[in-house]
Amino acid sequence: MMILCIFLCAACYYDYRYSRIPNWLTFAAFAAGAAAALAGGGMASVLRYLGPVILVIAAFYPLFRLGTLGAGDVKLFGVCAGYLPGGKILMFLFFSMLFAAIISLVRIIRQPDPKERFLYFCAYIRDVAESGRWKLYFEDKQEQRRAGICLAGPILLSVLLYMGGLY
C-alpha cells in the first residue's frame, strides 16, 4: 500500500499542477500492483487484482463520457481498487466521493455567486429530462476545467483512511 501512496502523491502533484494525471503514472501504479499480486500469489492473484480494476473503470466510464470525471481520475479509481480487498472497495469509493463533494461544496460556497452554479445544474437536469438524451455537463472545455475539481487528493485521503484502519 505504501507504493500506492507514493503514486497517489505524484498523481496529486500532476492533477493539482496541470489538471491531468499522466497515463504513464497510472500505468506504473497499475504495473506495480500487478507485480505485487504476482509475487504474492501467482497468476490467480493477478486475476483477483484485475477484476476490481476493470469493474471500477467500467462503472465510472459513463461519468467520463458525460464529462463529469476525467479519464485519469477514472483510471486512478480503478488502479486503487485493485490494491484494496474486495470488501473495502465500496467504502473507498464512498469516502473518495465524500471528500470530493465536500471540496465541491466549499468551492461553490466561496464563489461570488453560488446561485449561478446551482441554476446551471438545474438547467442541465431539465434539459436532459426534456430531451431524453445525455449530453456533456460542460460543453466548453475552459469552463469544465475551471469548475472541475482534482480527484487525486480525495482518492489519496480515502486510501489513507483505509491504511489508518478507519474502514
What would your notes on this structure say?
The structure is a single chain. By secondary structure, the protein is mainly alpha-helical. The chain has one domain (2-163). Helices cover 79% and strands 0% of the residues. The chain is built from seven helices and no strands. The protein has helices spanning 2-18, 23-65, 71-83, 89-110, 114-131, 141-147, 152-163. It is elongated. It starts with a helix and ends with a helix. The relative contact order is 0.16. The model has no long low-confidence stretch (mean pLDDT 91).
Mean pLDDT: 91
Strand proportion: under 5%
Distance N terminus to C terminus? 15 Å
Proportion of residues in helical segments: over 70%
* SSE-based structural type: mainly alpha
Number of strands: 0
